[in-house]
Amino acid sequence: MRPTLLRPAVAADEPLLWDMLFEASHAGEQGLTVADLPTISALSRYVENWGATGDLGVIGGPAAAPEGAAWLRLFTGTDAGYGYLDDTIPELAIAVAATARGTGLGTAMLERLIDDATGQYAAISLSVREENPARRLYQRLGFVDVDGSRIVNRAGTTSLTMVLRLG
Ligand SMILES: CC(C)(COP(=O)(O)OP(=O)(O)OC[C@H]1O[C@@H](n2cnc3c(N)ncnc32)[C@H](O)[C@@H]1OP(=O)(O)O)[C@@H](O)C(=O)NCCC(=O)NCCS
Question: What is the pTM of this model?
Fold first, then answer.
């Protein structure tokens, strides 16, 4: 098995985060490209000006060619992300490049990010489509469904919010 390479996300990682946001948001299904994302405020708010106060992230994969990212950002009630719970709970975004999925990188990044966030935040939230296999990963790491959070998403299917309370 190859070693899993992880490092903290820094401001210079913003271009990679746009690519990973494209994967995490499934924007390709709507005929969008990565270049469209900065013009869509509901999505751009997850990445724009990466490195702001409160941002916390993990980059995974070889240093010369990163393959994934998991990151947290705080939102406010007037600028809420899809999985917003309150101003103190950051929201997770995570993706691995299609060619590198299913090899454990997503799990490793999220475990590291949870470790890094513990002590800094009381909880982490996220929004996920009900049919996304990533739900199994979130459940395994302790995320639970937020009651009453199911909504119809941009694709016309169901999304819900999950939360992990940190020790
Ligand atoms: C979700 C994701 C980040 C997981 O990363 P990964 O490196 O593939 O994950 P791992 O190999 O550690 O496997 C963990 C879980 O990821 C999910 N997963 C694995 N391969 C996957 C794939 N090809 N597509 C979607 N999810 C996959 C499964 O839930 C898996 O758990 P399981 O073994 O119980 O089925 C990655 O698959 C991905 O980028 N998916 C598309 C973007 C996305 O949906 N992001 C989450 C939005 S809420």
Answer: 0.96
